[in-house]
Structure formats: C-alpha cells, structure tokens
Amino acid sequence: MKSTARVRIVALSTCVCATIFGVGAGGIGSLAAGTEPPSATTWDRIASVLQHPRCMNCHQLETPLQGDTRRVHIPPVRRGADNMGVGTMRCHNCHNDSGNNAMSGVPGAPHWQLAPTSMLWEGLSTTELCRMLKNPELNGHRSPQALIEHMETEKLVLWGWNPGRHREPIPISHQNFVDLMKVWVSGGTVCPQ
Ligand code: HEC
Ligand code: HEC
C-alpha cells in the first residue's frame, strides 16, 4: 500500500512538472526542458511554417496552388523553362512587383515565380523537408547562415506575413520564426530521426 502511494506521488509530481513545462512548449525558452535535441524539436515548429499554404503553394512541381484550401491555380499556369510561366501566362503579367493588388485580390511580391524543382516540398515528411532544406545541392548552395538570411529578408518569404485579402497569414510572428531558425542553426541543424 505504502509503496503504491509513493509511486502515485512520484507519478503525480512528474505529471505536474510536465504540465508546467508543457505550458511553455510554444516558446523557445521551454526547449531546455525537452528530452529531444533542441534543434530537432525546434525543427518541427519551423516545418509547420514551411508546410503552411503561404509557402507550400509556390514550392510545387508544375503548377502553383491557390488559397488556404490549396486548389489548383486558376487560370491554369505552368512552370516553363525559367519558372516564370509559359506563353502569355507569365507570372509577372498578373503578380506585380509592387505587392498585393487590393482591387483585384491578386497577391504580389518582387520576382514572383515558382520555386525551382530542387525545392519541391509537397509530399515530404518533416524529416525529409529538413534534410532537403539543409542540402546545399538542393537549396541553392545556401549555408545554414544564408538560410537564416533568406527567411529574414527574402520578399517572397515576408509576403507570407502580409498575403493580402482572403488569405491566412503565417500564424506565428516573423520574428519568432527567424528566432527558431537561429536556434536550429546554432544547435547544428539537427533533423528528426
Ligand atoms: C511566389 C512563390 C513563393 C512563395 C510564396 C514562397 N517561396 Fe520560397 N522560394 C521561391 C523561389 C522562386 C525560390 C528560389 C529562390 C532562390 O533560390 O534564390 C524559393 C526558395 C526558398 C528557399 C531556399 C532554400 C530551399 O531549399 O528552398 C527557402 C528556405 C524558402 N523559399 C522559404 C520559403 C518560405 C518559408 C515561404 C513562406 C513563408 C516561401 N518560401 C514562400 C518561391 C516562393
Ligand atoms: C492571368 C493571371 C495570372 C497569371 C499569369 C498567374 N497568376 Fe497566380 N494568381 C492569379 C490570381 C487572380 C490569384 C488569386 C486567386 C485568389 O486568391 O482567389 C493568384 C494566386 C496565386 C497564388 C496563391 C497564393 C496563395 O497562397 O494563395 C500563387 C502561389 C500564384 N498565384 C503563383 C503563380 C505563379 C508561380 C505564376 C506563374 C507560373 C502565376 N501565379 C501566374 C492570377 C495569375
């Protein structure tokens, strides 16, 4: 009896402890309490941004997707040799360098185009995405530091936080996202197993 009670107390305190740390699970500060390598847990949160429709809709194979429901792009467009469309359906004909068009609802940012095929993210697990992102052969020969900079300053990335009407922005703040990238990089760009 006595030992069962003790087990219960231990179990209870472990549970309380987990709850306390669990509350902080949304923040970087709580990573120290985790049992996984910090870089890998951080990765899951980074991946949730990369897999958001605002990013994923462009990191496609042949045609971009549209909206939060991720329907095929209307009107139909294709990648073409330079990732900027074919014939009269060139991305820049509709997607303006000066930003989102409030009147028409067409989103815009400088050099709007499909991500290169080496950066196809659709259908990847978070682990595969992690390995792909840090592979210089596939990521545009970017060092981990250059990946942070891309996330910090690239206009197509920043657009995800200001996507114009009817589109959900990336749910965590941009600063929070960049901080997560820094934690992941300083922890050695660890990918989940
Ligand atoms: C309008 C299309 C478009 C959108 C939207 C977009 N990207 Fe990209 N992305 C690109 C293009 C084009 C490149 C290639 C640019 C280069 O290599 O210089 C790219 C490259 C990248 C890279 C370089 C490394 C790699 O392996 O892919 C990262 C990282 C990236 N994008 C992150 C994001 C994130 C994060 C978002 C969402 C917040 C996003 N992108 C949204 C088009 C887009
Ligand atoms: C003839 C005009 C036209 C052309 C050409 C065009 N688009 Fe679009 N695109 C649109 C319109 C309109 C929308 C907005 C649809 C909506 O949200 O209802 C859109 C939306 C998008 C979105 C959705 C963003 C999001 O997350 O919701 C992406 C990505 C996109 N276009 C990429 C491209 C790419 C890449 C090209 C070139 C290969 C291209 N578009 C060419 C008209 C065009």
Poorly predicted tracts of residues: 1-34
N- and C-termini, Cα separation: 41 Å
Number of strands: 4
Overall shape: globular
Q: Helical residue percent?
A: 40-55%
Q: Outline the biggest β-sheet.
A: 2 strands, antiparallel
Number of H/I helices: 8
**Mean pLDDT across all amino acids:** 86
- SS content category: mainly alpha
Q: What's the order of the H and E elements?
A: HHHEEEEHHHHH
| Strand neighbour order, sheet with most strands | 1-2
β-sheet strand percentage: under 5%
Walk me through the structure:
With 193 residues, this protein is mainly α. Helices cover 41% and strands 4% of the residues. It has helices spanning 2-23, 38-50, 53-56, 91-94, 126-134, 144-153, 155-158, 174-186, and strands at 65-66, 71-72, 85-86, 89-90. The strands form two sheets. A two-stranded antiparallel ribbon has the order 1-2. It has a two-stranded antiparallel sheet with strand order 3-4. A hairpin with a 2-residue loop joins strand 3 (85-86) and strand 4. Bound molecules: heme C (2 copies). One heme C (HEC) binds at residues 53-54, 57-58, 64, 66-67, 73, 75, 77, 84-85, 89-91, 93-95, 105-107, 113-114, 166-167.
